[in-house]
Specification:
heterodimer; A: mainly alpha; MetI-like fold; 2 domains; 10 helices; flat; B: alpha/beta; Rossmann fold; 33% helix
């Protein structure tokens, strides 16, 4: 019972903090007499949702599709490659350092290239989102697969455990917290990747919309687009942490 | 010792090689352990005690001398007759206590139902009845070590190798665990090789004590400890106990 009350208080504080930010935002604009093209009030921001020209729902769905698509590919390829590397030592020796170097490339800078290669639209934005979230997932998963207590390996090797037994009983479940850690970082990056893709070249999506309304100085719509983007990102993040809660024991979870 | 020893080490040598450099970890270790004995192996840090243990576990090949485990009466199967306990409990965070205890049985492919039954009995024996379904993080350090001891016994091995199993516990818990270990040993009737750098612990537990000196490990002394079992903590105040500890201190050039 007490635990429940504590939880409720925790959530209450979170909501309160957010409401406080919105209120300060409102007061700042009103008392500071900030012109609406610099900063709209929260209410004015919400009102833009009513303008049909902006096709909010369609644009949000397009961007969300790009984020989820790129992210799904990032998780799939990141985790699979890490698994392959952990099994095939030669591939690991050759490609792992290569991927560490590739990770240094600012992926956002590749955006224009991707658009040349794949033309603009959904596909290339998915690829940009993928390329930016893939590396942290690969690298943290790979790290999780190698971080095993040497004594634990000795313990199971004294029982002649097979490579497969070590993999399924120790390596894989042990790496799971790292997989989720990488996935959480990747989720945030995927959102950034998709938006950047839309900024560079596209004809749909929230990023595209932001560029459009920028020219008409409809700042309220830009605010709204950022809020919707954040909501998409938050949904993805909550999905991942929810999965983590199911899959990973409390004590083993990483930040 | 009328019967043939169960474990026999004869002039065992171990050299580690890394980057062309040789490091003599164990130079000349000779000892014999009878079946059912609890031999403590005491010496300063880095004296190669752990190396001796790993050779016994079949994890490291030795470079000279002879290692023989098993005798005419009792056969020894290196792949399944060793249980190990380390300084860290090395419990898998994502497994409940009972499933942690079952790990060796799973690796050896022992019948599930019987193993589970045995794991329950062992947990009761080490004082963890009712804790079967908890996760490791819900247990104190001492309780985790109890679980690790139960795990080392689950596949009914003939030899238990312990590498400073109580080294990470606080002094009082450690004394309690010493008493517990003696009780478990008298119930489980296993041959135990117990590595420690605590001279008190070595004398209190062992039927015999082997003293190793540092770098490289050399057998300085080995002697019977003629203190009757069951032993209580107050034997530490007896004159005979003091004699044995002084003998070890002298061997280690500390007395």
């Amino acid at each position: 019972m007490e635990e429940l009350a504590e939880k409720a208080r925790g959530y209450g504080l979170i909501i309160l903090a957010h409401l406080a930010v919105i209120l300060s935002w409102h007061l700042f604009v009103v008392w500071g007499e900030v012109p609406s093209y610099v900063m709209p009030t929260p209410a004015a921001t919400v009102v833009t949702l009513a303008s049909p020209d902006y096709h909010w729902l369609d644009n949000t769905l397009v961007t969300a599709g790009e984020i989820f698509g790129g992210y799904a590919l990032g998780v799939l390829f990141g985790v699979s490659l890490a698994l392959i590397f952990s099994w095939v030592r030669i591939l690991n020796a050759v490609f792992f350092p290569l991927f560490v170097s590739l990770n240094m490339i600012p992926k956002v800078a590749l955006g224009p290239l991707f658009i040349v290669w794949f033309s603009y639209g959904l596909g290339s934005n998915i690829i940009i989102a993928f390329s930016i979230c893939f590396f942290p997932i690969l690298l943290t998963t790979a790290r999780g697969l190698t971080e095993i207590e040497p004594d634990l390996i000795d313990l199971v090797r004294s029982l002649r455990a097979s490579r497969w037994q070590i993999f399924t009983k120790i390596q894989l479940p042990g790496a799971l917290p790292y997989v989720f850690s990488g996935m959480k970082v990747g989720a945030i990056l995927a959102v950034a990747g998709a938006v950047v893709g839309e900024f560079i070249a596209s004809d749909k999506g929230l990023g595209y919309l932001m560029i459009q309304v920028q020219s008409t100085l409809d700042t309220a719509a830009m605010f709204m687009a950022v809020i919707l983007l954040s909501l998409v990102g938050i949904s993805l993040y909550l999905l991942v942490t929810g999965l983590e809660r199911i899959c990973v024991v409390k004590d083993a979870r990483l930040g | 010792m009328a019967a043939q020893p169960f474990i026999q080490l004869d002039g065992v040598r171990k050299v580690y090689r890394s980057r062309g450099e040789e490091f003599l970890a164990v130079s000349d270790v000779t000892m014999a352990v009878a079946e059912g004995e609890l031999v403590s192996l005491v010496g300063p840090s880095g004296c190669g005690k752990t190396t001796v243990l790993k050779i016994l576990a079949g994890l490291h090949p030795h470079d000279g001398g002879e290692v023989r485990i098993g005798n005419a009466e009792t056969a020894f199967d290196a792949g399944r007759d060793v249980g190990m306990v380390f300084q860290q409990s090395l419990l898998l965070k994502w497994r409940r206590i009972i499933d942690n205890v079952l790990l060796p049985a799973e690796i050896l492919g022992l019948p599930r139902k019987a193993s589970r039954e045995r794991a329950r009995e062992l947990l009761a024996m080490v004082g963890l009845a009712g804790e079967e379904d908890k996760y490791p993080y819900e247990l104190s350090g001492g309780m985790q070590q109890r679980a690790a001891i139960a795990r080392s016994l689950v596949h009914d091995p003939k030899v238990i190798l312990m590498d400073e199993p109580f080294g990470a516990l606080d002094a009082l818990t450690r004394e309690k665990m010493n008493l517990e270990l003696l009780r478990i040993w008298s119930e489980a009737k296993k041959t135990i090789v117990f590595v420690t750098h605590s001279i008190q612990e070595a004398v209190f537990l062992g039927t015999r004590c082997a003293v190793l000196t540092a770098g490289p490990a050399r057998m300085a002394d080995t002697f019977d400890i003629a203190l009757p079992y069951p032993r209580q903590l107050d034997i530490k105040t007896q004159e005979a106990f003091g004699e044995y500890t002084r003998r070890i201190y002298r061997q280690l050039d500390m007395g």
